[in-house]
């Protein structure tokens, strides 16, 4: 009798769904209750992950093992297969990846997929991605369409009334997608090869309007340099930038790339070319970039060069003093700050030298 009732109830529900689909064009748009639709998107690097779902509420009901049964469960209509939970309400929960990704360590091509979960009594579970993302819920779920299944471990969390997707624990290359509902959290790690994606995207962008300026090639080369990737491609790009607009900045980038490639003599030669066309401010700013990135000895080398090229500038002596102070070389820091003050510096330079001398106990 219970089975007959369940079959009748399932048929009724299906009839309602079909009626909605058949006559949707003939009615006005009204709010969806009690499980409103929602969309959440997270950017990871330059890639995006989007989840479209419906948000049921607990409303005092027993959720796990009751409203959402444990394990895979046979659907009373539709495909009639054992199916995972639809991970929301109403239509399929859909997850979309803008680029190729890894989900729980498994490779997933860019595209849209049906997202399903399984919960077991022992707080373990599974995440399932299906190539069929257009069906209604789990009713037409077919394991033949599975792209991946992966084991996950659920977490206990504070009460969450409405089912909610969120992204946490984000890094440069990854984030954790989590489903939070009732007192359970379903975590799924998603990763992208961000550097490869950025490099491929840069190659595409440089064939469009961005490729008409030296800045486009320079920015691409600098990304590769700062992220220690694709040095050969970076060198090609910076050479193109230099051909279009030879500047101190582009030459320094080329010198740094050559250094990373182990081509030291070439790097030194390019750096000499750069210093031959630089200004005091450009060289000073470059020194501070090195200092801020922890390359203290290299920064001191650049500031010393600037004092040789511009010996009458109080500012370059002040900057050299600051570099020595950052390194912890108190003696040389004091010498250079006093040199700066002896040259009647501008008020801001004077204030900086005096501040450091006070901190060094030499005022």
Largest sheet: 6 strands, antiparallel
The helix/strand series, from N terminus to C terminus, equals HEEEEEEEEEEEEHHHHHHHHHH
Percent helix? 40-55%
Q: Termini separation (Å)?
A: 95 Å
Strand order of the largest sheet: 1-2-5-8-9-10
Number of helices: 11
Task: Give a structural overview.
The chain starts with a helix and ends with a helix. The chain has helices at residues 2-23, 194-205, 214-226, 231-244, 248-260, 264-277, 280-292, 296-309, 314-327, 330-341, 347-359, and strands at residues 37-44, 47-54, 73-74, 82-83, 93-97, 101-103, 106-108, 111-119, 124-130, 146-153, 155-168, 174-191. Helix 3 packs parallel to helix 5. The chain has two domains: 2-9 and 32-192, no CATH class; 195-359, Alpha Horseshoe (Serine Threonine Protein Phosphatase 5, Tetratricopeptide repeat), CATH 1.25.40.10. The strands form three sheets. Strands 1-2-5-8-9-10 form a six-stranded antiparallel beta sheet, with no helix packed on it. The chain has a four-stranded antiparallel beta sheet with strand order 7-6-12-11, with no helix packed on it. It is α+β, with helices and mostly antiparallel strands. A hairpin with a 7-residue loop joins strand 3 (73-74) and strand 4. The chain is 42% helix and 24% strand. It is built from eleven helices and twelve strands. Residues 1-24 have low confidence and may be disordered.
């Amino acid at each position: 009798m219970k089975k007959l009732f369940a079959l009748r109830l399932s048929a009724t529900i299906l009839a309602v769904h079909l009626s909605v689909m058949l006559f949707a064009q003939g009615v006005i748009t009204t709010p969806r209750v009690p499980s409103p639709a929602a969309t959440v998107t997270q950017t990871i690097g330059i890639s995006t992950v989007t989840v479209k779902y419906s948000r049921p509420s607990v409303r005092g009901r027993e959720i796990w093992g009751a409203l959402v049964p444990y394990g895979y469960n046979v659907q009373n209509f539709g495909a009639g297969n054992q199916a995972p939970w639809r991970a929301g309400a109403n239509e399929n929960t859909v997850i979309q990846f803008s680029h190729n990704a890894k989900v729980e360590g498994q490779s997933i091509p860019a595209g849209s997929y049906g997202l399903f979960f399984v919960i077991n009594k022992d707080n373990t579970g599974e995440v399932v991605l299906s190539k069929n993302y257009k069906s209604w819920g789990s009713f037409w779920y077919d394991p033949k369409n599975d792209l991946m299944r992966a084991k996950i471990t659920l977490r206990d969390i504070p009460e969450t009334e409405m089912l909610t997707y969120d992204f946490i624990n984000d890094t440069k290359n990854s984030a954790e997608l989590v489903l939070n509902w009732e007192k359970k959290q379903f975590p799924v790690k998603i990763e992208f090869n961000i550097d490869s994606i950025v490099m491929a995207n840069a190659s595409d962008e440089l064939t469009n309007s961005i490729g008409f300026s030296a800045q486009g090639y320079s920015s691409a080369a600098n990304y590769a340099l700062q992220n220690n990737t694709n040095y050969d491609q970076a060198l090609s790009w910076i050479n193109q930038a230099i051909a279009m607009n030879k500047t101190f900045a582009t030459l320094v980038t080329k010198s740094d790339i050559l250094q990373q490639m182990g081509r030291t003599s070439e790097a030194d030669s390019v750096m000499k070319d750069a210093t031959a066309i630089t200004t005091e401010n450009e060289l000073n700013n470059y020194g501070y970039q090195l200092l801020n990135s922890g390359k203290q000895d290299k920064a001191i080398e650049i500031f010393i060069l600037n004092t040789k090229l511009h010996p009458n500038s109080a500012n370059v002596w002040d900057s050299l003093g600051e570099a020595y102070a950052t390194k912890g070389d108190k003696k040389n820091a004091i010498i250079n700050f006093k040199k700066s003050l002896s040259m009647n510096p501008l008020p801001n330079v004077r204030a900086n030298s005096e501040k450091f001398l006070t901190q060094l106990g030499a005022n």
